[in-house]
């Protein structure tokens, strides 16, 4: 399998932007959230200056344009129809985001017990939630079946065993299900996010009759109500023909097996660099509709966009701490975050742009490598950043299009507290996820003042051990 090779840039399915395109200012780039505007003091989003947000909430900071998020949700619903759009919450999830997607009429796609917990906590009704995952455990299935989620996307025969056991032994209601199918069509910007091929951990293969066997097994089971089939071929796909090809393959199978419902996943790509033009929801819908109709599917289609809802709505603010000019080599600009808040460059070789919020209309003739503060050379945010020439220590920088798979993949590497997340709208900012504190970093540590158990005692047993662990 071919994974990220740093020498094989670019990724994200696009050629790097040309020198001319990289001269574009932030405002011209088409990468900023929809309500962005230039003021004399700098760039404002949702009616709030980014410099003001950094002052109030600190950096690094994730800023989401709430109006942009809502507009993307509405556009998706307009393109595919109500009840036919599920927000893929793994792209970015918190209580406020779950509520927003629900308020805008989207279903919520969750892929773990944790995501399900957040969705239910946010007050999203279970019949608006669908559960995914290639290895759901009994606890996750138990919660989903007891709550009666809209449907479970079943991924394996072992999962069917677990559902049947829960139904038979714990008398849980039968699960409404769709079957995840691997259509033999993979798409996407990087091997790690190409999911629909035959050699995939996801789903029942159409090849070799596995999917057909899964349909027979589910249809004959009292524990499952089989309503449809599902496929998701990959992510950051900029050519809707690839998405349509995956949809057509699974549509043919859905028509042949007389299913009621068809879900064709997410995957629509977004622009990360100046000069890129991603397809709209309307284009995606038109392409998919034609493809599934030609494949014999006469009914509606459900999609699960994640990135294309959340990516451009969000940006990250960093503070510059160091500027290191290495004569004849390159310039390094070090900021106060890094791979712990944006793993995508390290994971997929993804490329980003960077702008100075104080001068969003400035041309960007300077070249530098924007790096984080983690203890490895791979901690790169923008490998070959284009910046205004006067960037200085203590400047605020913004990397746009970090709203999807940014905070969602954040970690505490090097014990960095994870950033705060704010939503801005109509001149007001509200914290939706607070910044972690150093106290938070110690929250899970079990402090044993007595030190390690003495060598003569068996580890983990006896009243002493239980007492130390706080369970006695
Ligand atoms: C990740 C995922 C999505 C969303 O993908 P995007 O590329 O973010 O739109 C949708 N459906 C499933 C099953 C997924 O795993």
Automatic annotation (TrEMBL):
<feature type="binding site">
    <location>
        <position position="348"/>
    </location>
    <ligand>
        <name>substrate</name>
    </ligand>
</feature>
<dbReference type="InterPro" id="IPR022643">
    <property type="entry name" value="De-COase2_C"/>
</dbReference>
<feature type="binding site">
    <location>
        <begin position="304"/>
        <end position="307"/>
    </location>
    <ligand>
        <name>pyridoxal 5'-phosphate</name>
    </ligand>
</feature>
<feature type="domain" description="Orn/DAP/Arg decarboxylase 2 N-terminal">
    <location>
        <begin position="67"/>
        <end position="311"/>
    </location>
</feature>
<dbReference type="InterPro" id="IPR009006">
    <property type="entry name" value="Ala_racemase/Decarboxylase_C"/>
</dbReference>
<dbReference type="InterPro" id="IPR022653">
    <property type="entry name" value="De-COase2_pyr-phos_BS"/>
</dbReference>
<keyword id="KW-0456">Lyase</keyword>
<dbReference type="InterPro" id="IPR029066">
    <property type="entry name" value="PLP-binding_barrel"/>
</dbReference>
<dbReference type="InterPro" id="IPR022644">
    <property type="entry name" value="De-COase2_N"/>
</dbReference>
<feature type="binding site">
    <location>
        <position position="307"/>
    </location>
    <ligand>
        <name>substrate</name>
    </ligand>
</feature>
<feature type="modified residue" description="N6-(pyridoxal phosphate)lysine">
    <location>
        <position position="90"/>
    </location>
</feature>
<feature type="domain" description="Orn/DAP/Arg decarboxylase 2 C-terminal">
    <location>
        <begin position="62"/>
        <end position="403"/>
    </location>
</feature>
<feature type="binding site">
    <location>
        <position position="405"/>
    </location>
    <ligand>
        <name>pyridoxal 5'-phosphate</name>
    </ligand>
</feature>
<feature type="binding site">
    <location>
        <position position="376"/>
    </location>
    <ligand>
        <name>substrate</name>
    </ligand>
</feature>
<dbReference type="Pfam" id="PF02784">
    <property type="entry name" value="Orn_Arg_deC_N"/>
</dbReference>
<keyword id="KW-0028">Amino-acid biosynthesis</keyword>
<dbReference type="InterPro" id="IPR002986">
    <property type="entry name" value="DAP_deCOOHase_LysA"/>
</dbReference>
<keyword id="KW-0457">Lysine biosynthesis</keyword>
<keyword id="KW-0210">Decarboxylase</keyword>
<dbReference type="Pfam" id="PF00278">
    <property type="entry name" value="Orn_DAP_Arg_deC"/>
</dbReference>
<comment type="function">
    <text>Specifically catalyzes the decarboxylation of meso-diaminopimelate (meso-DAP) to L-lysine.</text>
</comment>
<feature type="binding site">
    <location>
        <position position="344"/>
    </location>
    <ligand>
        <name>substrate</name>
    </ligand>
</feature>
<feature type="binding site">
    <location>
        <position position="405"/>
    </location>
    <ligand>
        <name>substrate</name>
    </ligand>
</feature>
<feature type="region of interest" description="Disordered">
    <location>
        <begin position="1"/>
        <end position="23"/>
    </location>
</feature>
<protein>
    <recommendedName>
        <fullName>Diaminopimelate decarboxylase</fullName>
        <ecNumber>4.1.1.20</ecNumber>
    </recommendedName>
</protein>
<feature type="region of interest" description="Disordered">
    <location>
        <begin position="448"/>
        <end position="472"/>
    </location>
</feature>
<feature type="compositionally biased region" description="Basic and acidic residues">
    <location>
        <begin position="1"/>
        <end position="12"/>
    </location>
</feature>
<comment type="subunit">
    <text>Homodimer.</text>
</comment>
<keyword id="KW-0663">Pyridoxal phosphate</keyword>
<comment type="similarity">
    <text>Belongs to the Orn/Lys/Arg decarboxylase class-II family. LysA subfamily.</text>
</comment>
<comment type="pathway">
    <text>Amino-acid biosynthesis; L-lysine biosynthesis via DAP pathway; L-lysine from DL-2,6-diaminopimelate: step 1/1.</text>
</comment>
<feature type="compositionally biased region" description="Low complexity">
    <location>
        <begin position="456"/>
        <end position="472"/>
    </location>
</feature>
<feature type="binding site">
    <location>
        <position position="267"/>
    </location>
    <ligand>
        <name>pyridoxal 5'-phosphate</name>
    </ligand>
</feature>
<dbReference type="InterPro" id="IPR000183">
    <property type="entry name" value="Orn/DAP/Arg_de-COase"/>
</dbReference>
């Amino acid at each position: 399998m071919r994974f990220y090779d740093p020498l094989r840039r670019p990724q994200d399915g696009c050629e790097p932007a040309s020198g001319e395109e990289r001269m574009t200012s932030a405002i011209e780039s088409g990468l900023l959230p929809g309500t962005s505007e230039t003021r004399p003091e700098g760039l404002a989003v949702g009616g709030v200056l980014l410099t003001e947000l950094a002052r109030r909430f600190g950096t690094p900071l994730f800023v989401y344009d709430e109006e942009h998020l809502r507009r993307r949700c509405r556009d998706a619903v307009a393109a595919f129809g109500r009840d036919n759009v599920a927000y893929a919450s793994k792209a970015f999830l918190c209580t406020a985001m779950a509520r927003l997607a629900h308020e805008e009429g989207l279903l919520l796609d969750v892929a773990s017990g944790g995501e399900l917990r957040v969705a239910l906590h946010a007050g999203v009704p279970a019949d608006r939630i669908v559960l995914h995952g290639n290895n759901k455990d009994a606890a996750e299935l138990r919660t989903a079946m007891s709550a009666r989620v809209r449907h479970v996307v079943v991924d394996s025969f072992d999962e069917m065993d677990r559902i049947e056991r829960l139904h038979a032994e714990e008398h849980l209601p039968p699960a409404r299900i769709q079957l995840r199918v691997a259509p033999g069509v993979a798409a996407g910007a990087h091997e790690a996010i190409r999911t629909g091929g035959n050699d995939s951990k996801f789903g029942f293969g159409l090849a070799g009759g596995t999917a057909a066997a899964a349909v027979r097994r589910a249809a004959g089971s009292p524990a499952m109500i089989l309503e449809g089939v599902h496929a998701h071929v990959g992510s950051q796909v900029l050519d809707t023909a690839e998405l349509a090809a995956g949809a057509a393959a699974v549509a043919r199978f859905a028509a042949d097996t007389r299913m009621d419902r068809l879900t064709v996943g997410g995957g629509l790509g977004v622009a990360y660099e100046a000069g890129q033009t991603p397809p709209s929801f309307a284009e995606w819908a038109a392409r998919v509709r034609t493809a599934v109709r030609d494949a014999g599917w006469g009914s509606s289609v459900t999609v699960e966009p994640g990135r294309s809802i959340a990516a451009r709505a969000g940006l990250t603010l960093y503070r510059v701490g160091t500027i290191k000019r290495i004569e004849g080599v390159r310039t390094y600009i070090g900021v106060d975050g890094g791979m712990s808040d944006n793993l995508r460059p390290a994971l997929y070789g993804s490329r980003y742009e960077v702008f100075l919020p104080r001068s969003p209309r400035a041309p960007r003739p300077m070249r530098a490598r924007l790096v984080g503060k983690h203890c490895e050379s791979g901690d790169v945010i923008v490998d070959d950043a284009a910046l205004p020439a006067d960037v200085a220590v203590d400047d605020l920088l913004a990397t746009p299009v970090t709203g999807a798979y940014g905070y969602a993949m954040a970690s505490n590497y090097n014990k960095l507290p994870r950033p705060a997340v704010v939503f801005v709208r109509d001149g007001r900012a509200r914290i939706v996820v607070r910044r972690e504190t150093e106290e938070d970093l110690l929250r899970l540590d079990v402090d044993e003042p007595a030190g390690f158990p003495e060598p003569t005692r068996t580890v983990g047993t006896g009243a002493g051990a239980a007492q130390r662990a706080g369970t006695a």
